[in-house]
């Protein structure tokens, strides 16, 4: 099995706090891969380092066999990125943003226009294509970001929380596009803390908590004996037996 | 529901206390904010006391009434526009925050009006109004009218601000409203220029100029409440009552308008995130407008197009450009007008506009990641920086040339035009070169909301970037400056002055290219560090 992404001994500290504590990852090519973990587990930091947006303290990252930091020319052309918490050029309209992004990557203008039109149609953004991105809703921003990440037909797509704050209709649209994309042999790596979503979408999962990888493998391997991924996950991150608390005895049962 | 115990008086005191708590908590947030508040309070009180003294000194002056009526009218205008430009200034101005509470409109209006009377603004208004009536009141009846007049005028001002805010709350909480707020600094600067201009005219031709305006404004609320005091002083009690009635009527009308908007706001859903049922027709089917066709192909044109669009569409970038364009024109032209000018002041245009090359990536905010993911070599970085410099030149070159020619024409110093232009171009080149280099070496975040242009904790970086860059730019221009001085002092220097135009242009071009070549590898190798530095806003 060939690796789409190969991470060895990756570390990142912010001051006193260790965000990523020496992780190793082998993500197979052609799969729909979920990186799951609670808030603050280091998912965004990891994805930022893998995509070249954040410099690691130690460790190496290879994407489709090329070192991200030593061979950026080979890597940047082959990956698409949708980061979380970073802005887009929001004073461009949706179509202008795609045109800008595509031509920065060296695609010819006519080809960019053709692909942009199709992406806007498929992602249900054609009606809002001339609106400024600053006036888009969260779901529309995620979709235009996804379109920009797909425009140059990358081999590996990295999506940080692509379904966060997205309505069910947009989520279904995004899902459809991603499933079609992986069916053609491309790799999708996305982070999420919604287990049901990961369970229904992914064939390969890596579980992260407190800056470390707790488990990685196929969905069945990671789930093990547990009935759902949610259960397996709670046990892996050590939050299995926690109860909602018996102190709220006044809550519910009519106003008093 | 267990709210039936809340009487109107309760609500008023609750809202007033809410306002006080908001004020107190706002001050507790940071020492800087507290200091700013105390300083502004002291300044306002000092200013208020000074104008009180000034107005009292004006007592008995033939044109005193015109002055105070005009002052009150300007003050009311200030109250009307303030909520549009400083929507964040008063959180109780946004009644939608109270929408979840079971409140009736009438008690709410009363409570919010009372809360509006708390603060520095109302205090200043009260000082000014008091000063105004003391200036024009003569006799017991006039003082009686004055008390009513001051209260009425103050209430009209406050109600005016509330009514304007309530009527425009959708705009104020929308993106367009926030864009407007960023530009408010410019409005104040231009307003200050107008006031300055008006004061100069008054200084040269006297207060009698104000009489025609005063005659009209004494019938316009809330100035009419102050006009009533003057009328009472002259014994025209009928007129005084009429003027007071006008202000009272205005107050009632404003409160009615405000209450209607308030009721509508509190009972209708916020539609700002709704999509319009009919999507806009797909205008501009060719998508890339006329601008794109004129620009070079490839990354260069793409970068230029985005930069130029941002000059117009991004409020922060627009405000910075307008400021640079205005100062670059005002300094040389006004100096020339006043006879203190020199043709070399025209270099201000090039210098001010060259500043826009500084902190290029900070202007992108965290959207810089889109640039970072497409730069994989020093060559990419070079083309990116060159595109940005070219976009800047599209505006700057014609503008600096125009300002230089204009200044020359006003001074009539045509023989010196070539060397002034040459100097401008050399300076512009040096600014572009140092701007590109500091953009790569000392990037910092520009917060998108509010008035700050540097993110907290990066002030030092910004200083190094801008002032270090400007000093370096001046040093880099030194050879051309030296040549200009030589041309002016040497015996046959004037014969060679024209050569400074091509020499300055060539020097500027060469130094820009050198700067871009030095900045490009630095940019390419520091992409993650730059992204981190510009993502703090």
- The total count of strands of chain A amounts to 10
Q: What spatial order of strands do you see in the largest sheet of chain A?
A: 6-7-8-3-9-10
Poorly predicted tracts of residues of chain B: 1-5, 272-288
Rg calculated over all Cα atoms of chain B: 29 Å
Question: Mind describing the biggest β-sheet of chain B?
Answer: none
Coarse shape of chain B: globular
Largest interface: A-B, 43 and 41 residues
State the end-to-end CA separation of chain B. 44 Å
Helix content percent band of chain A: 25-40%
The major pleated sheet of chain A works out as: 6 strands, mixed
- Looking at how many chains there are and whether they match, the oligomeric state comes to heterodimer
- Output the structural class of chain B: mainly alpha
Which radius of gyration of chain A do the C-alpha atoms yield?
Answer: 20 Å
User: Helicity of chain B, in percent?
Assistant: over 70%
What number is the mean pLDDT of chain B?
81
Order of helices and strands of chain B: HHHHHHHHHHHHHHHHHHHHHHHH
Which structural category do the helix and sheet elements of chain A fall into? alpha/beta
**Count of extended strands of chain B:** 0
N-to-C CA distance of chain A: 63 Å
Overall average residue pLDDT of chain A: 90
Which descriptor suits the 3D outline of chain A?
globular
Task: Walk me through the topology.
The complex is a heterodimer of chains A (256) and B (537).
Chain A: E1 3-14, E2 17-28, E3 32-36, H1 43-50, E4 58-63, E5 66-67, H2 72-78, E6 79-82, H3 94-104, H4 109-122, H5 138-150, E7 156-160, H6 168-183, E8 187-192, H7 195-201, E9 204-209, E10 212-218, H8 219-223, H9 229-236
Parallel strand pairs in A: 3-8, 3-9, 6-7, 7-8
Antiparallel strand pairs in A: 1-2, 1-4, 4-5, 9-10
Helix pairs in contact in A: 3-4
Chain B: H1 8-28, H2 31-58, H3 64-85, H4 105-116, H5 120-136, H6 140-167, H7 169-172, H8 175-182, H9 184-205, H10 211-217, H11 223-233, H12 237-267, H13 290-294, H14 298-313, H15 315-337, H16 347-354, H17 360-364, H18 368-372, H19 378-411, H20 417-441, H21 459-489, H22 493-496, H23 500-525, H24 527-534
Helix pairs in contact in B: 1-4, 2-5, 3-5, 3-6, 3-10, 3-11, 5-6, 5-11, 6-11, 6-12, 11-12, 14-15, 14-19, 15-16, 15-19, 16-19, 16-20, 19-20, 19-23, 20-21, 20-23, 21-23
């Amino acid at each position: 099995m060939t690796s789409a992404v190969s991470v060895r001994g990756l570390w990142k500290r912010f001051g006193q706090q260790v965000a990523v504590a020496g992780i190793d990852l082998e993500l197979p090519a052609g799969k729909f891969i979920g990186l799951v973990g609670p808030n603050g587990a280091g998912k965004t930091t990891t994805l930022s380092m893998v995509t070249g947006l954040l410099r690691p303290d130690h460790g190496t990252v290879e994407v489709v066999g090329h070192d991200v930091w030593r061979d950026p020319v080979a890597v940047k052309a082959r990956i698409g990125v949708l980061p979380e918490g970073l802005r887009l050029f929001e004073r461009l309209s949706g179509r202008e943003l795609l045109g800008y992004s595509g031509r920065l990557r060296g695609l010819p203008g006519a080809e960019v226009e053709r692909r942009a039109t199709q992406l806007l149609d498929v992602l249900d953004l054609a009606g809002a294509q001339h609106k400024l991105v600053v006036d888009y809703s969260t779901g529309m921003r995620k979709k235009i970001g996804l379109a920009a990440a797909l425009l140059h037909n990358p081999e590996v797509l990295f999506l940080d929380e692509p379904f966060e704050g997205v309505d069910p209709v947009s989520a279904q649209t995004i899902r459809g596009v991603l499933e079609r994309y992986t069916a053609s042999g491309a790799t999708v790596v996305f982070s999420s803390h919604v287990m049901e979503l990961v369970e229904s979408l992914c064939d390969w999962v890596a579980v992260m908590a407190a800056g470390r990888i707790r488990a990685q493998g196929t969905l069945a391997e990671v789930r093990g004996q547990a009935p759902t991924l949610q259960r397996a996950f709670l046990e892996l991150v050590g939050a299995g037996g926690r109860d909602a608390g018996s102190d709220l005895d006044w809550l519910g049962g009519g106003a008093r | 529901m267990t709210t039936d115990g809340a009487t109107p008086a309760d609500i008023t005191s609750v809202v007033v206390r809410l306002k006080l708590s908001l004020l107190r908590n706002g001050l507790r947030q940071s020492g800087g904010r507290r200091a700013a508040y105390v300083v502004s309070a002291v300044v306002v009180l000092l200013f208020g006391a000074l104008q009180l003294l000034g107005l009292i000194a004006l007592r008995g002056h033939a044109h005193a009434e015109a002055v105070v009526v005009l002052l009150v009218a300007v003050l009311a205008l200030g109250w009307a526009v303030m909520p549009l430009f400083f929507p964040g200034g008063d959180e109780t101005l946004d009644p939608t925050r109270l929408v979840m509470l079971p409140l009736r409109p009438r008690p709410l209006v009363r409570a919010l009006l009372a809360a509006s009377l708390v603060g520095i603004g109302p205090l200043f208004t009260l000082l000014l109004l008091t000063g105004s009536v003391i200036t024009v009141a003569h006799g017991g009846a006039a003082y009686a009218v004055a008390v009513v007049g001051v209260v009425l005028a103050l209430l009209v001002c406050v109600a005016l601000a509330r009514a304007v805010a309530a009527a425009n709350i959708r705009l104020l909480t929308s993106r367009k409203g926030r864009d407007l707020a960023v530009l408010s600094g410019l409005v104040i600067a231009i307003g200050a220029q107008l006031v300055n201009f008006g004061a100069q005219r008054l200084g040269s031709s006297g207060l009698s100029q104000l009489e025609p305006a005063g005659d009209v404004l004494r019938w316009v609320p809330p100035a009419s409440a102050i006009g009533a005091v003057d009328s009472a002083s002259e014994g025209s009690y009928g007129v005084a009552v009429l003027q007071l009635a006008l202000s009272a009527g205005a107050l009632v009308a404003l409160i009615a308008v405000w209450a209607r908007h308030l009721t509508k706001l509190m009972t209708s859903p916020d539609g700002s995130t709704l999509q319009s049922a009919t999507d806009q027709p797909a205008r501009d089917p060719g998508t890339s407008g006329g601008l794109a066709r004129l620009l070079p192909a490839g990354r260069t044109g793409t970068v230029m197009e985005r930069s130029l669009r941002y000059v117009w569409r991004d409020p922060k970038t627009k405000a910075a450009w307008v400021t640079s364009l205005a100062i670059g024109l005002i300094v040389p032209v006004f100096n020339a007008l006043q006879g203190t000018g020199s043709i070399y002041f025209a270099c201000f245009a090039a210098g001010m506009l060259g500043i826009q090359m500084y902190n290029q990536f900070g202007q992108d905010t965290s959207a810089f990641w889109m640039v970072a993911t497409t730069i994989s070599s020093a060559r990419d970085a070079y083309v990116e920086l060159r595109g940005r410099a070219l976009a800047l030149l599209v505006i700057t070159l014609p503008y600096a040339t125009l300002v230089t020619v204009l200044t020359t024409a006003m001074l009539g110093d045509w023989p010196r035009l070539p060397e002034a232009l040459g100097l401008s171009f050399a300076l512009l080149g040096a600014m572009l070169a140092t701007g590109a280099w500091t953009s790569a070496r000392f990037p910092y975040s520009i917060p998108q909301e509010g008035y700050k242009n540097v993110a907290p904790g990066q002030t030092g970086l910004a200083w190094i970037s801008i002032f270090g860059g400007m000093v370096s730019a001046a040093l880099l221009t030194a050879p051309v400056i030296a040549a200009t001085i030589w041309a002016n002092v040497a015996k046959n220097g004037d014969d060679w002055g024209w050569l400074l135009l091509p020499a300055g242009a060539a020097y500027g071009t060469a130094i820009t290219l050198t700067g871009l070549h030095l900045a490009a590898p630095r940019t390419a190798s520091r992409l993650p560090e730059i992204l981190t530095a510009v993502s703090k806003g």
